[in-house]
């Protein structure tokens, strides 16, 4: 068993923890037979559940945590009082080298605050960003930032572009990712100063980890015009929630339409195989697992309300990042761009 594939799990994080976390790990261990899981949480609760799953028990270690971070806790409160929480101990395992990655479905703000304090950012990165991926008309795309940084300058956006490119290569398998800056138009004069400044840096850089496409608009996200969509955390979070809401609205209208008459019901029966395929393609559990990019360690945030299947996919994202050397690749990209940053920044 490879120590590099030890995954640290916050067993108490999430709406349906710890059952969801444990069953998710059991699904994941079948997909990744070389993985080992370190569970942090209430040992009296989680160990009996794990022992009922012999396959999982054989590749798991349970570490007791005295407390847990609640969903309603403020990040500052979690930092002060959560040193012995399941979330903090799971992150500490990555910092000490005992685990290669941490996965939690707990409080997003607390997880980001703790991970940033414990793991710290990589050299050359000012702020970590939240990145995740979703289906498009072409294939799949990654977008960042999704809420970690409400306000960003041009340098932050350029750093996000590099992070997103590494994500696209390591998780999505895109060899030469195309990068786009989310804007209110595709013309060079459109948008605020920070976005235009980032575009100038990316155009003039002699080394960009991928291909800079230019500006993209909101409707280009679902079209899959680029592999990496870069924006500030405020805009990214609004865009993501809008996409999620639109998918739910579409499903709501579709269900009501098929219930409107017996003919519509008959049409549903005939179309059911195609609709099942559509449902599977758009299933948010398949795309569960947001990465805190830019940290000196791999930290994956699972949706708090997901089920075991969704949590297993979040673990899968962590494994992909580890196996493909995401941290080393990110360091290498920033080292190459470091020589170009002063000249480019001066020209903005």
Mind explaining what this structure looks like?
By secondary structure, the protein is of the alpha/beta class. 50% of the residues lie in helices and 16% in strands. Strands 3-2-1-4-11-10-5-6-9-7-8 form an 11-stranded mixed β-sheet, with helices on both faces. A hairpin with a 4-residue loop joins strand 10 and strand 11. Helix 4 packs across helix 6, helix 5 packs parallel to helix 6 (108-119) and helix 8 crosses helix 14. The longest helix is centred in the last third of the chain and has 26 residues, at 233-258. The radius of gyration is 21 Å and the shape is globular. The protein starts with 5 loop residues before the first strand and ends with a helix. 47% of the residues are buried. The model is unreliable at 342-348 (pLDDT under 50).
Question: How do the helices and strands line up, and which of them pair or pack?
Answer:
Blueprint lengths: L5 E5 L8 H13 L4 E6 L1 H9 L2 H4 L2 E5 L10 H7 L4 H10 L5 E4 L3 H12 L9 E7 L4 E5 L9 H17 L7 E5 L10 H12 L6 E6 L1 H6 L4 E3 L2 H26 L3 H21 L7 E4 L4 E4 L6 H16 L2 H13 L2 H7 L1
Parallel strand pairs: 1-2, 1-4, 2-3, 4-11, 6-9, 7-8, 7-9
Antiparallel strand pairs: 5-6, 5-10, 10-11
Helix pairs in contact: 1-12, 4-6, 5-6, 7-8, 7-13, 8-14
